[in-house]
């Protein structure tokens, strides 16, 4: 408690241990939106208190978020195993209609919620022209219950387990809760109603992921992280009525209004510039940065508010004080004040007003009337009622030497209050920080790397372009980093599914989810199983034949030798036939050549006879040319035919009379049965 000239802000104060304990206190329970019987934009209709509280049970978001994360990870793996093909339902007309309706509904709903939160802030913030507007704005952001006004908020006192206000003139409702008729604070101005429905919308938004999976696409890890984290963050903020939750509702609904509008346009296959998609992604990651910083600030801010503090003072009173006596005292005081008006009008009027309130018995109001020119009006007047009399003052002379009584006087002082009041509010803040910090750190890491890579210390006027590009690269870097974790999770799901299937089938698996390879020497389990089956059949066959292993092996060897001998004889016969055919082919070829030469000589003789009657150098007649061509052609044909016959006609391998067979086929020929 201080005696300052006005309220002040104290950033950087550390939170107390009481608000940082874990698990947080369950009190106070969440309060449903106020309902006075009149529908307004801030509170269109009442939400029953039991339904309001049941939806904010910790089991609801925890169960849904866990099932959502595991299910999406599994279906990502499923789509990858099936080549990322679209499901059959995704190709139907009803599915397209549902997608359009879903996107339009969320775009309109998000826009309405954003407008509602803007009006909520407008009705809660003081006007910038008001006195102490800065501290008043901090008070409006930190205290969300009670009537509007600096120091008039209703807060929950953990020690006393009650709702109270620092202003004694502010009262709570009949049930000990903040009055539903209070106006000017965010909870009653729309945060209770629109924040609760926005919390429930986080569960409906998982249909975004269902649509993506049905199309055969992969839901990004960033999307899964965002949806699951948003459920828990909104739950904590609304369950413990934490002040920063309005920021999440306002910013997230605004971005979603733009995002679902983009999805609606894309559903109709209308091309949207890539810069729009990049901008939306950057805005989503930017809200993480802003949200983390804003939420964390609430833990380290405190400020002072004016508080009317009661004090007891002693006064002299007459033994038999009646109305006429008071009236005469007031008349005398009024006359004295009137005489002093020409010289000190402000002081005299203030003193007169104090005197009248005291005479009426309202000491608190009299004490709070300021005296012009005095920085501490209460202290200036305190010595008067305490018995330090002015010998020339008529009222003080009247009370001199009379009885002493105690009266209560009020003095305005400034009390420091923290922005966060309960451990539940603090829990909601650092849960949001835990949720957003990994994304924030990844973004800053990639941002600085990209920015430093793009900037040149010697270049000027490039910072704006570099920052824009660095932010874009950082957003993609965050997606890639988170995506790698998602891939690892999907691989883990895949291994778990395989391990479960193998366990149901009775197969042993190792730590990696693969079938355990219990090798027997150099053989694998599959080969060992095959060999055992072979041995089993062999044993059964030997028992049927009533032959020992040695006799069977001996007969098998003898049969094998016979087969090999026949194969060798066949080979020798084939080689002999080949040589014989080759010799015959050569002889036929020689005969054909000799015959061709004789015909050529004969044709040449005819040609010479024809040329004998002509002069030397005379060209051959057409008949002679044809005869010569026929002779050459016939010689070539005979030569080619001889070679072809040598390779094809005479050198063909005769069919083998007895080819080597395997042991099983040989035994089959022997007695009509095989070993296996």
From TrEMBL:
Topology relative to the membrane: Multi-pass membrane protein
Coiled coil: none
Subcellular location: Membrane
UniProt-annotated stretches for the region Disordered: 496-531, 564-676
Compositionally biased spans, kind Basic and acidic residues: 564-612, 634-676
GO molecular function list: fatty acid elongase activity
Catalytic activity: an acyl-CoA + malonyl-CoA + H(+) = a 3-oxoacyl-CoA + CO2 + CoA
Pfam families associated with the record: ELO
Record keywords, A-Z: Fatty acid biosynthesis, Fatty acid metabolism, Lipid biosynthesis, Lipid metabolism, Membrane, Transferase, Transmembrane, Transmembrane helix
A GO cellular component annotation in the UniProt record: endoplasmic reticulum membrane
Keyword Mitochondrion: no
Known EC number: 2.3.1.-
A Gene Ontology BP annotation from the UniProt entry: fatty acid elongation, polyunsaturated fatty acid
Keyword Transferase in record: yes
Family assignment from sequence similarity: Belongs to the ELO family.
Protein name listed in UniProt: Elongation of fatty acids protein
Organism of provenance: Cucurbitaria berberidis CBS 394.84
């Amino acid at each position: 408690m201080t005696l300052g000239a006005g309220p002040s802000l104290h950033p950087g104060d550390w939170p107390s241990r009481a608000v940082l304990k874990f698990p947080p206190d369950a009190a106070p329970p969440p309060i449903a939106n106020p309902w006075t019987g009149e529908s307004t934009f801030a509170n269109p209709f009442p939400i029953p208190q039991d339904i309001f509280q049941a939806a904010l049970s910790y089991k609801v978001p925890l169960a849904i978020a866990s099932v959502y994360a595991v299910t999406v990870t599994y279906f990502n793996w499923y789509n990858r195993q099936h080549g990322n093909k679209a499901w059959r339902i995704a190709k139907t007309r009803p599915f397209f209609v549902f997608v359009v309706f879903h996107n339009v509904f969320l775009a309109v709903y998000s826009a309405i919620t954003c407008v509602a939160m803007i009006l909520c802030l407008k009705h809660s913030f003081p006007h910038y022209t008001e006195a102490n507007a800065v501290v008043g704005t901090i008070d409006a952001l930190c205290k969300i219950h009670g009537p509007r006004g600096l120091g008039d908020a209703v807060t929950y006192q953990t020690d006393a387990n009650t709702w109270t206000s620092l202003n004694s003139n502010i009262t709570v409702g009949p049930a000990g809760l903040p009055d539903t008729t209070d106006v000017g604070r965010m909870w009653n101005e729309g945060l209770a109603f629109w924040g609760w429905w926005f919390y429930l919308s986080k569960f409906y938004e998982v249909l975004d992921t269902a649509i993506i999976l049905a199309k055969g696409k992969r839901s990004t890890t960033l999307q899964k992280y965002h949806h699951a984290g948003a459920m828990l963050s909104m739950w904590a903020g609304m369950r413990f009525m934490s002040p920063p939750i309005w920021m999440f509702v306002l910013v997230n609904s605004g971005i979603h209004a733009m995002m679902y509008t983009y999805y609606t346009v894309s559903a109709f296959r209308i091309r949207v510039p890539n810069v729009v998609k990049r901008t939306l992604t950057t805005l989503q990651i930017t809200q993480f940065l802003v949200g983390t910083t804003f939420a964390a600030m609430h833990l380290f801010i405190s400020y002072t508010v004016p508080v009317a503090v009661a004090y007891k003072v002693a006064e002299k009173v007459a033994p038999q004080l009646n109305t006429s006596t008071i009236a005469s005292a007031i008349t005398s005081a009024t006359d004295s004040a009137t005489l002093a008006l020409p010289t000190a009008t402000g002081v005299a009027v203030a003193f007169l007003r104090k005197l009248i309130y005291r005479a009426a018995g309202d000491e608190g109001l009299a004490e709070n009337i300021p005296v012009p020119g005095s920085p501490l009006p209460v202290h200036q007047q305190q010595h008067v009622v305490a018995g330090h009399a002015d010998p020339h003052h008529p009222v003080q002379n009247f009370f001199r030497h009379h009885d002493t009584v105690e009266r209560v006087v009020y003095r305005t002082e400034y009390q420091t209050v923290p922005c966060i009041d309960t451990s539940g509010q603090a829990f909601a803040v650092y849960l949001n920080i835990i949720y957003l910090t990994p994304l924030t750190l990844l973004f800053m890491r990639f941002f600085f790397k990209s920015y430093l890579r793009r900037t040149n210390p010697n270049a000027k006027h490039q910072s704006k372009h570099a920052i824009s590009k660095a932010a874009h690269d950082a957003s993609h870097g965050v997606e890639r980093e988170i995506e790698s974790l998602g891939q690892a999770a999907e691989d883990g799901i895949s291994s778990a599914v395989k391990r479960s299937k193998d366990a149901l089938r009775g197969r042993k698996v190792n730590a990696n989810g693969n079938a355990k390879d219990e090798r027997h020497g150099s053989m694998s389990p599959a080969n060992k199983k095959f060999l055992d089956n072979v041995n089993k059949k062999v044993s059964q066959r030997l028992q049927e034949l009533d032959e020992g292993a040695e006799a069977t092996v001996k007969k098998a060897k003898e049969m094998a030798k016979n087969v090999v001998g026949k194969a060798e004889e066949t080979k020798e016969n084939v080689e002999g036939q080949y040589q014989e055919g080759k010799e015959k082919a050569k002889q036929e070829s020689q005969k054909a050549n000799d015959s061709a030469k004789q015909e050529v000589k004969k044709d040449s003789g005819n040609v010479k006879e024809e040329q004998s009657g002509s002069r030397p150098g005379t060209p051959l007649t057409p008949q002679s040319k044809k005869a010569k061509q026929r002779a050459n052609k016939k010689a070539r044909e005979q030569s080619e035919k001889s070679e072809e016959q040598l390779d094809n006609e005479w050198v063909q391998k005769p069919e083998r009379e007895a080819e080597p067979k395997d042991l099983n086929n040989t035994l089959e020929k022997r007695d009509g049965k095989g070993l296996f």
